[in-house]
Specification:
By secondary structure, the chain is of the alpha/beta class. It has 8 helices and 10 strands. Strand 4, helix 4 and strand 5 form a beta-alpha-beta unit.
Length: 290
């Protein structure tokens, strides 16, 4: 059974942009699309049955209109809808476990947009078991950026990078796009900050060359698995956030990671992921990994 692309809808421009992006992504991947709206009504005072029924009716109408719009644009795409009488974050996290990816709306340069509540987007990003894609509200419904680069940020080059690379290579293959793999690195303290040590005359070629070879080694099995994907390798000295933001400034999709086994200190997603979510104009995929 195919795992769907799931979208969280709340009636906002951000969530509608997310739905249109998700529809195109589902078509590229040959997957069904599933629209979810959590209509749980939680006023500050005692709930009124009439208000609850009105909110449920609004949810039903919004899902119906969104589905009609998407099927009109993409007649061959299977689109299903679901109303959930639950708080948004747990509802979305539960469904994300059975999804190929979950798509939500983002306000981009401000805080990540919530799904009903401002904190929901961050809760989902911090705890989802599947990749979560955040889409800006200014992504046009008719936008077609499938040929643009897919940029993946690799903070480590060992086994934890595998989920990011698998997602990024598959996304590039579906789009017919180049994959740009970006690895930012810093000099060990013993070297100081003299750039002259970056390339030495020894056989190894210095620190920069070793970083380039390590990136090439990490990419090699994925190049073999996806031979149709052109790959640009970028190993660059500098602060990871700055390097990745420059590389992803004109990307069609940015892919970043989130560590699953991070200590339970709130809803942290990592500084590089946080920067990319807030400042990259393209949709951003956050992929959980060990």
């Amino acid at each position: 059974m195919l795992r769907p692309v799931i979208v969280g809808l709340d009636g906002s421009p951000e969530s509608l942009a997310a739905a249109h992006w998700a529809a195109r992504e589902a078509i590229l991947r040959g997957l069904p699309l599933h629209l979810v709206n959590a209509w749980f009504w939680q006023p500050h005072d005692v709930p009124d049955a009439q208000d609850t029924e009105a909110h449920k009716h609004w949810s039903t109408r919004h899902l119906r209109e969104a589905r009609a719009d998407l099927t009109a644009r993409h007649p061959l795409l299977p689109v299903t809808t679901e109303q959930v009488s639950d708080l948004a974050a747990p509802a979305l996290l539960d469904r994300a476990a059975q999804a190929e990816l979950l798509v939500l709306g983002s306000r981009g340069h401000s805080a990540v947009a919530g799904f009903l509540l401002g904190s929901v987007g961050m809760q989902v990003l911090a705890h989802a078991q599947s990749p979560v894609v955040m889409v800006r509200a200014d992504q046009p419904a008719t936008a077609d950026r499938t040929g643009d680069e897919v940029v993946v940020a690799l903070q480590g080059l060992g086994a934890p990078a595998a989920p990011l690379l698998e997602f990024a290579f598959a996304a590039a293959a579906a789009r017919g796009a180049t994959l740009r793999a970006v690895h930012a690195w810093s000099l060990p303290p013993a070297y100081g900050y003299d750039a002259a040590v970056l390339r030495t005359a020894d056989e190894d070629g210095g620190v920069a060359s070793r970083q380039e070879r390590a990136l090439a080694d990490a990419l090699r099995p994925w190049r073999e698995k996806f031979p149709q994907v052109p790959v640009a390798e970028q190993a660059e000295q500098g602060y990871a956030g700055e390097v990745v933001l420059r590389a992803a400034a004109r990307a069609g999709l940015a892919v970043v990671g989130r560590r699953v086994h991070r200590p339970a200190l709130g809803m942290r997603i990592g500084p590089v992921t946080h920067a990319v979510l807030h400042h990259v104009p393209a949709p951003v995929a956050v992929v959980p990994h060990d």
